[in-house]
Amino acid sequence: MAEKELRLNWLLCGSLIVSIGSSLLWPLTTIYLHNYLHQNLTTAGVVLFINSLALILGSYLGGIIYDRDRANVRRWLLLAIFLATLAVFLLIFFNGWPTFALLLLVDNFGGGVSTTLVNSLATGIKEKSSRQVFNLMYFMQNVGVVIGTLLVGFIVEIDIRWIFITNFVLFLFFLVIVYRHYYVPKAALSHVSPGQPTAQQVKRTPVRYVIVIFAILGLFFAIEAGYSQWQSNLSIYMESLGISVKNYGFLWTINGLVIVFGQPLLNKLLDDWLEVKLVNKIYLGASLFTLGFVTLLYAQTYVHFVVTMIIITLGEILTFPTIPALVDTLSTLGEKGKYQGAVSIFAALGRAIGPLVGGILIDGFSYQVLFLAMIGLMALATVNLLFVAKINLSKK
Question: Residue 149 is part of which domain span?
């Protein structure tokens, strides 16, 4: 009998299912806290911040688990997904204040562990290159975003509880798939021994690469801090301009459609024809994110928000799958879990601090001040990476 291991097709199937479930919930989190549970934007920001801390803790733990207990990763992954699934199940019945926030915390902790473990497992798949694997995962996640955000506007009009029910069913389905198919790839186990660690296992990532990795992570933090405004505070801003929740949700459908149709074209152009380096794709993507927030300073109509979303989505296509792929190429085999965990942690930090700082800036000043702060943060982080990479990646 052939030895079981995770195949790319099941990895992509899992990414799709989780993405559909998650995209039913996250576009509504701030709206639910503000409109249904009657909490102000600062309180909503605090809730998102604390929940992101749980995600960070889970991501950190997931990285440690992968590097230290790789042979048993499947068991840990099943436990993490079960925890998240249980939390979503309880949300069906207990979704008031503050129970909603507490169960969301449990969901995020389980999600943090599972996301890092899945991303780390992805580095062991050798059917395609690391760049291709993460691009395909990202593609399937955004097919899920299209489906999920297309459904969310219709489901919420029936009864918001159906959001939790649908989410639970999808997570349960993912749990079954992980149980049946998420075995550790042979390439990830090839240097793992039950006794003393081999040289491959203990070999550390060169310091100059570590410096570049943390500059990349700093930029990822800045991008996620800005991007989190779209998933939180901008929903309230658009409502204040007379734009409905349904139309806000449709923006994420547009986001997913641009990714589904635009990512293959951009990858063909930049990877196959122009052979653009991974780090240069990140520079270009970060510049588009910054440009998108510049246009937000003048956005007043729905059409303007659609155009801005398209600009930011193009930046997302170039950065989100490229960052874990570049970090993978810079890190050694024995530290894959550590640095993939760091990718999840810095992204979660951005999503944690972004809504909280955003809520404070909006309540204390204005949305325009928030947009200017995000523009400055992303521009500074981009320049820092450009400087650090120029020095450290040019060394022989």
Answer: 8-392
